[in-house]
From TrEMBL:
<feature type="transmembrane region" description="Helical">
    <location>
        <begin position="289"/>
        <end position="311"/>
    </location>
</feature>
<dbReference type="GO" id="GO:0005886">
    <property type="term" value="C:plasma membrane"/>
</dbReference>
<feature type="transmembrane region" description="Helical">
    <location>
        <begin position="560"/>
        <end position="582"/>
    </location>
</feature>
<feature type="transmembrane region" description="Helical">
    <location>
        <begin position="18"/>
        <end position="37"/>
    </location>
</feature>
<dbReference type="InterPro" id="IPR052536">
    <property type="entry name" value="ABC-4_Integral_Memb_Prot"/>
</dbReference>
<feature type="transmembrane region" description="Helical">
    <location>
        <begin position="614"/>
        <end position="635"/>
    </location>
</feature>
<feature type="transmembrane region" description="Helical">
    <location>
        <begin position="647"/>
        <end position="668"/>
    </location>
</feature>
<feature type="transmembrane region" description="Helical">
    <location>
        <begin position="153"/>
        <end position="176"/>
    </location>
</feature>
<keyword id="KW-0472">Membrane</keyword>
<feature type="transmembrane region" description="Helical">
    <location>
        <begin position="203"/>
        <end position="223"/>
    </location>
</feature>
<keyword id="KW-1003">Cell membrane</keyword>
<protein>
    <submittedName>
        <fullName>ABC transporter permease</fullName>
    </submittedName>
</protein>
<keyword id="KW-0812">Transmembrane</keyword>
<feature type="transmembrane region" description="Helical">
    <location>
        <begin position="104"/>
        <end position="133"/>
    </location>
</feature>
<feature type="domain" description="ABC3 transporter permease C-terminal">
    <location>
        <begin position="64"/>
        <end position="184"/>
    </location>
</feature>
<feature type="transmembrane region" description="Helical">
    <location>
        <begin position="57"/>
        <end position="80"/>
    </location>
</feature>
<keyword id="KW-1133">Transmembrane helix</keyword>
Amino acid sequence: MFSNLILRNSRRSRKENGLFFSSLVISIVAFYMILSISTQDVMLFLQKMESDAVDKLLLLIPAFYGMTLGILFFLIYFACKYQFERRRHEFGVYLMLGMRRSKLFGMLLAEDFLTSILAMLIGLPVAVVLSEIVSLVTAKLVGMGIIGHQFSLSWFAIEWTLAGFLAIKLTALLILSGRISRQEIGTLLSQPTNRPKKQMPSVIYGLAAICGSVMLAVAYYMAIQGIAWTKVSMMGLTLLLGIVGTMLLFYGMRALIALIVKKGKGNKQLHVFTFRQIQENVIHQSNSMAISSLLILAALCCFGAGIGIAGTNNLSSGHVIDYTFEDHTAEDSSQVLPNIKAVLKENSLENQFSELFEMRVGRIRTTEDYDNAYSMDAVMDSLRSLPQSEDRDVLLNNLGYATYPYLICLSDYNRLLELSGNPALQLGEKEAAVYIDTEFTTVSRTAMLNQVLAGHPKVELDGSPIHLTGEVQSVNLVTDRSITLSFALILPDEAFLYYSQGMYDTYVNAVLSEQALNGNSLMTAYLDLNEKLDETDIEYESYLQNMGRQLFYTIASSYITLYLAIVFLVVANTIVGVQFLMSQQKTGRRYQTLIRLGATYETLCQSAGKQITWFMGLPVLVAAVSSLFGVRALFTGILSSRTRGTVAEMMFVSAAMILLLCVIEYIYMRVVKRSSDRYLLTLMQPQREE
């Protein structure tokens, strides 16, 4: 009979508080997915190229795991506290009927153990399936293909998920069960009530709201303008202003709620009661609402920024050439290409490439006056004549250092343009084109410089006048992103050979042939060919290195930010939902009074629904508005100069993700409303007054 009671109570608790049970399942899924990152196909692949960076990322996993344990402990603690508060009368009846306190304690442990086991039985398979789906999608996006995917089940992740989840669940339950079992029977049988709190004048609340709004505005200005990212103290000040500003804003919202109450129309059913309840909940729970709003804000920012970066970080961007070879043993730069071809033919690898061409890059060797080898006063004057802006000032500063630029051979670069599908450059004898790697500029700055170049400004190269023409070029010269040029001139072949005096670096670029691919994915082809090239004496870099760096950036930004977003979102919504349901239970006598006065169940549900909309909607609304500024601030601090030109596109993607999370917030709100409706239904039946 006792076991039947445990089974029945456990089933009833899950049914009455589906929000909490769902949060437990989501927590288990999040635990497993973060702990199983090391077994993902993409991570195993990245360890071959970016082992140091991946190892550092994996070293952070225990820190995220420990932080999550702490956060979820408080979630479980408050959720269990709500469950016990709802059943305190039931516990009092058990004790009054003769149940020993130790047996009550054991019953609670057994009920919770059953719930935990069921949550793990549901959560772990879901986590494994989701982990495999993420791995498959990521493998497909990066070119590994479905064939290259291998099913992975991380027993390490399962063990630590179970250990961590059961540890925090048991700790929270021991604390709460101990408190419940020590309370007197009369205390358990009596209904809890809200303690009255001192009201402050409306002016105080209004000033608090204004001060909070100003603090938030200052915090977002500092973050978006990059002031917060200059040093740790400024970042700490920004976070402090944001947190205190949010707390003051919610504290001051009491004045707004009071104003709505005063202007409410009396012909609406339970209008005054509803907004009095809202006003009281805001007064009593303003700190909880502010904390929940901050957690939701953190979730929205993490989710929006992570998806925005990952969604706009095209791994195939700028992919033209597959391999770059070097030969430092050649005595003459002109012998590099023949030497590379000879080695490839000797190892039967010449058919693996459809294209092999030189990329010659040098310096000005006709003078040793490096500070005056190149001047472009006309370009600088044209830029100064443009309207003042941050982009203009940055361009002037960067170009001011371009007194000794690199030189690029026109025919080699035109071959690169041809392979990339772009039109070739047409340069006269006294003309040159400007090359700036995307790492050192943005879209807006490039457009500004193109505006100046449209006038064919005259510059001086070692005292000889030449004209700049065309648009700024930025196609990657070689495969590896470690070789980047902040400023270079593309010269006709004769001019290049003259100014470089035959002393230049020669890189041999290569494009894979159809035979090398042979139906395989691009990544598989790279890995197979790398093994063959490693057996030769050729020095090479493949696009795999470049892809690996971009891929690591995508994985690090998306996996970690999405994981944190899920954790913050679950905790925030569970806390705010549980807080409302606990507050509703403490004011249960008010609903019973309304029932005696003739209020219908539908009217009470409508009133409670409005309260939930306000109580949960305010934190979400503040967080959603703030997240737009928060995501923009994150982009300011974490994006490289190469990717800042896509901020507008990233913000669009982020806004879409924030809207999606707001839909999820609405679903959470509906779940809380259903729990509230079930509680109100229990009040409709007459009860004895103890």
